[in-house]
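tool_call: predict_structure(chain=1)
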Amino acid sequence: MDKEQHSPNFEQPMNGTWLVADQCRDCVFRYKDYFRMGDKKIPCSEEDGWKKSSCEIFPYPQSKPPEVQHNTGECEYYEKERQRKK
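tool_result:
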């Protein structure tokens, strides 16, 4: 019986799901300008900070609860950021 060798198909898009908690988008505890990874400060933008799997409440190496990451439950620490009056 011949064994077929399979080569990876790099032309196909990668399959997978990024876990992004929608409720974190306007939370006061999201990362706004940097996040900590151990002793390092890693810059991020305010637009992308809420997409991280950790936040000021759940700092790295912890991560947000699975139900928050999968958008199936509410975070008990969620606080909506107040909008500035213009």
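agent: Residues 22-69 form one domain. Proceeding to next step.
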